[in-house]
Each structure stands twice: as structure tokens, then as C-alpha cells.
Specification:
about 450 residues, alpha/beta, LDH C-terminal domain-like, six-stranded parallel β-sheet, 12 strands, globular
Length: about 450
């Protein structure tokens, strides 16, 4: 039974903007105005700034009944928690730079690299052990709490957690479904509140298979807009998906361009399908997002309210879920959960993104049946890589890491097997300090080159 004063633990609270955004969202609900926020981070300086920012949100929003505490050790914070939110980054910018730059030298150009591709696989290897440890602590210290994961690679981490800790109450959350559906409503001159839509698939690659208003099917209009040169140029690879496959896909083109063999083969195709760079697929764009030497100044300005936190509720699902479970007000969200017949033509056990009802009974996934078969096939290309990466992490197996790299669509479009093996060996060696002890000194075997260079 939830207490009248819910305890919400945020692990990774020292993030530049996320924890403050989520705190402000949560406090917009009357039922949560007395919430206690237990903020956790291993970086004490960032944690202190996070506390200052949260206190300022309380003051500026008039939330005098809310409270917070700061924790360097998560186990102290988890006792009696009702909800646990994770948004962590293992290895920091240094690890990101390595997983982008090493593949780039081999010819694999990633834009974001946090979901699939060599970057996503390496991020899984260094992050999944920590996420599993968090899930185990939740089951031990607050077994009724819901774990809301925002950490990427979303599908790999959730798959690994519910495989290793099967009794965890877990849902993975993203904003790509909300963002994409609102974007299409704006492009069509409609109000998203008047739109009925269906969307399902996997994280960062879910498909909008129905989009209508008052019985009017809007998918034909979306297909026409996808061929508008101005829209195409700003959102290129996603528009190519609609043009050739017929249905809108979630996430920005920068992400989307990495999940297939079609858009990033070489400099010529990157120039063609990533005009303008940035979120449209700029090579190494994630480094610009994470390399923030001004983080201290940014957090100081937030704490001083020189850069105020927006106190209006955002489209993030986290606050909606917590309010629905706590208050009983029903919500419909799209969450990442284990596929137990929810999408009939995707593998059982895989992590899928589907509609979920949320109320006092928790997060309840909704079965959506079968996706159009060609869309499910595209999803399965990702799922194969995800499964191998998860198994590689759970078994600390360098050969499985190599196998995941081989099946990655972008990597396979660019490199030979010998080149993938060499790249994987270099990535594993460079990431040793962030990999679990079970991975230490387990090198990927080298193989002879049986051709003339």
C-alpha cells in the first residue's frame, strides 16, 4: 500500500537537465505535491547542484510540502521507495568518445550510437551490469516499487534486467512516440488531442500503423508529406522509410539512419541522407551533446534561476505513470516491456514498445497483434543484435560481442568479418576499465588473414 507521501528515488540525479525536468513534472500533480525525492549520484558535486535545483523548484513552484534528500549510495536511498527512476551513464564522455571514434577509423560512421551499432553494444556491456545490480537492490530493499528506466540502450538494458531479475516491476520509457505523433499532427495542421493512433514495435523503431481523426485516415496525407522536399531534407532517413515502406517510424533521422544498411555506407551516402548534420545524422553528433565543459555553469544558472526550469508539465511518461499508480487516475502510455505475445510476429522475450494502461494495478501492456510483416522484419534485424549483446554481457563473452557487431546492420554494410573482429578487439581493449571484473583479461581471439593485403 502506497503511503500518502510517496518516496521517489532518482538514480543519476546529477544529470544536466533530466532529473530537474522529471521533478518539476511530478510536482504538477496534486496527489504528488507531498512527495519525497531521494536523489542519488556518484558525483558529489553534481549531486549537490541537483539538490540546489530541486530546492529552487520547490520554492518557485510553491511546493512547500515536498522534500528531498541527497545520497551517494543508492542502497540508502532505496529503503521504502515507491518508485525508482534510472538515468545513468557509465564511463562518461570518455567512453562515448572511444566508441564513436574507434569505429569511425574503420569506416563505421555513427551519429548517436546509443541504441544499436558498435556504440550501443559497448554501452550495453558497460551499463547492463550496473542496471542489473540496481534491479537486484530494488527487489531486495523495496520489492513493491516500480523501476522506470530511461537509460539507453533501452531495449538491451530492459531485456537484460528482466532476464536476470525476473521479479522486477520494470518499464522502459522514452519520448519518441509522444514526440513523433505530435510532430505529425503539427505537420498536418491537427491537434494531437483529436488524433487516434496506434504505434508499436521496438524502442526508437516503433511504427505508426494508424493515424486518424474522426474516422479520417491520415496516413495517405503523411505519405504525401514525406515526399515534400522541405520536410524530406530536415528528416531524411525517416521520410525514406515512409516513401518506401509506407508507415511512419519513431525517433529522429539521426538515430534512424544508424539502424539500417542504407544511409551511412560512405561519405557520399551520409552527405545525401544527412543534409545539415545534427539530429539529421551528423557524424559523431552525440559527442557534441555530451561534451559539456560548461556543465557546472549551466547547473549554477539553473540553481540561481537565471536559467529557470520550466514548471509546466512536459510530455515525459515518468510523471504520468507515477501519478496513475499512486492516485488511480488511468493513463495510456507507450512503454518498453517483455514481449509475451504482445506483438505476435516479434520474438517472445524480446523487449518491445507497446501501449500500456497504467492505474493502481501498475503498468499493464496491451496486446497489439501482428505488425505488417515487412515492418516486423526490420525490427527483427535490430532484435537479433540486441539479443546477442545482452547474452554477451550476461556471459561476459567477447566472441558474442563480435557476433553482435557482425549482425549490426550498419557495421555489416561497411566492414568485412576480419575488419569487424579487429574493431571489436580494439573496442574491448579500450573499454576494459568500465567493463565488469568478469570481462577483465578476456580478449577476443584473433584470426589469421587468409588473403593478400
Amino acid at each position: 500500500m502506497l503511503e500518502a507521501r510517496p518516496k521517489i528515488v532518482i538514480i543519476g540525479a546529477g544529470s544536466l537537465e533530466f532529473s530537474s525536468r522529471l521533478t518539476a513534472d511530478l510536482l504538477t500533480y496534486p496527489a504528488l505535491k507531498q512527495a519525497h525525492f531521494a536523489l542519488v549520484d556518484i558525483d558529489l558535486e553534481r549531486l549537490d547542484y541537483a539538490g540546489q535545483i530541486v530546492q529552487r523548484i520547490f520554492t518557485e513552484g510553491g511546493y512547500g510540502q515536498a522534500s528531498f534528500s541527497l545520497h551517494h549510495e543508492r542502497r540508502d536511498a532505496l529503503v521504502d521507495a515507491d518508485f525508482v527512476i534510472t538515468s545513468i551513464l557509465v564511463g562518461g564522455y570518455e567512453a562515448i568518445e572511444l566508441e564513436i571514434d574507434i569505429p569511425s577509423r574503420y569506416g563505421v560512421s555513427q551519429a548517436i550510437g546509443d541504441t544499436l551499432t558498435p556504440g550501443g553494444i559497448m554501452r550495453c556491456l558497460r551499463t547492463l551490469p550496473e542496471q542489473i545490480a540496481i534491479a537486484q537492490d530494488v527487489v531486495e530493499l523495496c520489492p513493491e516499487a516500480w523501476l522506470l528506466n530511461y537509460t539507453n540502450p533501452m531495449a538491451m538494458l530492459c531485456w537484460g534486467m528482466y532476464s536476470a531479475v525476473p521479479n522486477i516491476k520494470l518499464v522502459g520509457l522514452c519520448h519518441s512516440v509522444q514526440g513523433t505523433t505530435r510532430q505529425w499532427a503539427r505537420r498536418l495542421g491537427r491537434d494531437i488531442r483529436d488524433i487516434n493512433f496506434e504505434c508499436a514495435g521496438i524502442n526508437h523503431q516503433a511504427w505508426i500503423t494508424r493515424f486518424e481523426q474522426a474516422g479520417e485516415n491520415l496516413l495517405p496525407a503523411i505519405r504525401r508529406l514525406a515526399e515534400d522536399p522541405k520536410i524530406w531534407a530536415r528528416d531524411t532517413s525517416r521520410m525514406e522509410y515512409i516513401k518506401h515502406f509506407g508507415f511512419p517510424v519513431t525517433e529522429a533521422s539521426g538515430h534512424n539512419s544508424e539502424y539500417s544498411p542504407w544511409f551511412r555506407k560512405n561519405a557520399k551516402t551520409i552527405d545525401r541522407y544527412s543534409p545539415g548534420g545534427g539530429w539529421n545524422g551528423g557524424p559523431g553528433f552525440i559527442k557534441a551533446l555530451y561534451n559539456r565543459p560548461d556543465w557546472r555553469e549551466t547547473m549554477q544558472k539553473m540553481a540561481a534561476w537565471d536559467t529557470p526550469v520550466d514548471l509546466e508539465r512536459s510530455i515525459e511518461y515518468g510523471s504520468q505513470i507515477i501519478n496513475a499508480v499512486f492516485s488511480g487516475e488511468q493513463e495510456l502510455i507507450h512503454g518498453n516491456v517483455a514481449n509475451q505475445g504482445l506483438i505476435s510476429n516479434l520474438p517472445n522475450g524480446a523487449c518491445v514498445e507497446v501501449p500500456c494502461l497504467v492505474n493502481k494495478n501498475g503498468v499493464q501492456p496491451v496486446s497489439v497483434g501482428a505488425l505488417p510483416e515487412h515492418l516486423a522484419a526490420i525490427n527483427r534485424n535490430q532484435i537479433n543484435v540486441q539479443q546477442l549483446a545482452v547474452l554477451a554481457s550476461l556471459n561476459s563473452d567477447p566472441e558474442m560481442v563480435f557476433q553482435a557487431m557482425c549482425l549490426d546492420p550498419l557495421t555489416a554494410a561497411v566492414l568485412t568479418l576480419d575488419e569487424i573482429r579487429a574493431m571489436t578487439r580494439e573496442l574491448l581493449a579500450a573499454h576494459q576499465r568500465w567493463l565488469p571484473e568478469s570481462f577483465q583479461h578476456r580478449e577476443l581471439a584473433s584470426k589469421p588473414l587468409l588473403y593478400k593485403a
